[in-house]
Design goal:
With 317 residues, this protein is of the alpha+beta class. It has helices spanning 13-21, 50-62, 65-68, 82-90, 101-111, 116-135, 138-147, 151-163, 166-196, 202-206, 220-238, 244-249, 255-266, 270-312, and strands at 2-8, 26-37, 40-48, 70-75. The chain contains 14 helices and 4 strands. A 4-stranded antiparallel sheet has the order 2-3-1-4. InterPro entries: DUF389.
């Protein structure tokens, strides 16, 4: 269940209440007249089955509540009520398959904004991966993958394309491009500094690295793995199973490829620069393609489920 908390201008209260009461899957409607002071209005709350939330959100936004009041949605971890059980049973579709598009847009927008923290995480991850390459340590490579925050902008691009928000796509693309370029520059400077102190060296970089050579030797497998990771990543976001994102992060070779490209550029190993760049491009493209297709399929399946449920439901009295 989800709980909606609304600040409603007094002239919209009746319309909002009617919308909620007519929504199958909504229950526990409460109203406190004049309780809101900023903005001035009435305070309303209701519990909504996850599968009924997106249409209700669209209706509330259609009434202008987003501009004139407040729409806040929180997850209800436990709800002991027969009416809650009835609401979830009566709501069309299955809550596990429901996608809250406004929630997805807000989540990916937060995760795809180019901030100092985002740049710091991506730079640290890339430097960790550089150390993993130099030491030929798969453990450090996996750790760097887990630290990298790049899936947020990738999910933002997919979501923005599906819901047709150009600003979200542009912001996410900017975070990816600027983020990786900045991280590679920082990693190049980091490698030069460690070379100066004798911790890195050209001979160390040029010696065989059997455990990490896959980073700059992309194959068709790289694209397939990126496709699978993109599917899993988007499903983890739409179903609120965020724990799966760790597995997604350590499945793709984005951060390690950027790190190896920075190292190879520092030591003028042009064949590894090209190989790493190709590996990075394959992984990014695979995730975006898979994520976009997954969201489109989810949208299509959800509309079919709702249409089937509406067709089989008894007519309103």
């Amino acid at each position: 269940m989800l709980q909606f908390r609304l600040i409603v201008p007094a002239d919209l209260t009746d319309e909002v209440a009617e919308l909620i009461t007519s929504t199958v899957g909504a229950t526990h409607l409460t109203l406190l007249k004049g309780a809101a002071l900023d903005p001035v209005g009435d305070l309303m709350t209701c519990d909504v089955a996850r599968e009924a939330a997106d249409p209700l959100l669209a209706g509330l936004r259609g009434l202008g509540l987003e501009e004139r009041g407040l729409i806040a949605v929180d997850s209800v971890d436990m709800s002991l009520s027969r009416r809650s059980d009835d609401a979830e049973r009566d709501a069309p579709g299955d809550g596990a398959d429901a996608v809250l598009w406004d929630s997805m847009a807000e989540l990916t927008e937060d995760e795809s904004t180019l901030t100092v923290t985002y740049l710091a995480f991506l730079s640290v991850a890339t430097m960790l991966a550089a150390y993993g390459v130099m030491l030929d340590s798969s453990i450090l490579i996996v750790g760097a993958m887990a630290v990298g925050p790049e899936f947020g902008p990738l999910a933002g691009i997919c979501t923005g394309l599906v819901i047709r928000r150009k600003q979200l796509v542009a912001r996410s693309a900017k975070a990816l491009v600027v983020g990786f370029l900045a991280a590679m520059l920082v990693t190049g400077a980091f490698a030069a500094l460690l070379d100066l102190f004798g911790l890195f060296s050209r001979s160390q970089f040029e010696r065989p690295h059997p455990a990490t050579q896959f980073i700059w030797q992309p194959t068709a497998d790289s694209f397939v793995v990126a496709l699978l990771a993109g599917i899993a990543g988007v499903l983890s976001l739409t179903s609120a199973k965020s724990g799966a994102l760790v597995g997604v992060a350590i499945s793709v070779t984005t951060v390690p490829a950027a790190a190896n490209a920075a190292l190879a550029l520092s030591y003028t190993a042009w064949h590894e620069v090209l190989g790493s760049a190709w590996q990075l491009a394959l992984n990014l493209a695979g995730i975006v393609v898979a994520g976009l297709v997954t969201l489109l399929v989810q949208k299509w399946v959800w509309h079919r489920q709702r249409g089937r449920a509406a067709a089989t439901s008894p007519p309103a009295p």
